[in-house]
Amino acid sequence: MDVFLLIRAVAALAVTLGLIGLAAVALRKFGPEALNRIVSKRRERRLQVVETLVLDPARRLVLCRLDGEERLVLLGDGRLLDWTPAGAPSPSPVPSPAPVTTQPEPVV
User: Fold this and answer.
1) pTM summary value
2) How far is CA 107 from its chain centroid?
3) d(C-alpha 76, C-alpha 56), whole Å
4) Which spans are transmembrane here (predicted)?
5) Backbone angles phi, psi at 35, to 5 degrees
6) What pLDDT shows up at residue 102?
7) Domain span at residue 64?
8) Hey, what's the torsion of the CAs at 4, 6, 7, 10, to 10 degrees?
9) In this structure, are 50 and 32 located in the same domain?
10) How far apart are CA 106 and CA 12, in angstroms?
């Protein structure tokens, strides 16, 4: 193999790795935050994720804010927890009517 071909291959590899590194630095500096700022200026969002908590590898609790009210969601099992607003009372079960008992009339 000619020495000039080896130098050319090493130089091409150096240029390629340099471009990949430059792209990584640019994405870190201007990537997600810049895109989020552009999107948030376009339109005000109704739904925000306030906080998340990983319970185990299959389940996660997510605290969301929807129209100014915070709500708690359990993801992973397909169930919701406490989806009522914080100020609203939780629905209580309706008591069933008590059975009417009648006393037998004494026979005279």
Assistant:
1) 0.38
2) 72
3) 10
4) 6-27
5) -65, -40
6) 64
7) 46-84
8) 160
9) no
10) 111
**What are the residue ranges in the chain where pLDDT is below 70?**
1, 35, 38-43, 77-108
CA nearest to 77, candidates 93, 51, 59: 59
**What pLDDT shows up at residue 58?**
80
Residue 63 sits in the same domain as residue 25? no
Same domain, 37 and 1: yes
Distance CA 102, CA 61 (A): 52
Give the pLDDT confidence score for residue 79 in this predicted structure.
Answer: 62
Strand bridging mode 47-56 / 69-75: unpaired
Distance CA 100, CA 88 (A): 34
Contact 55, 61 (CB under 8 A): yes
CB atoms within 10 A of CB 58: 9
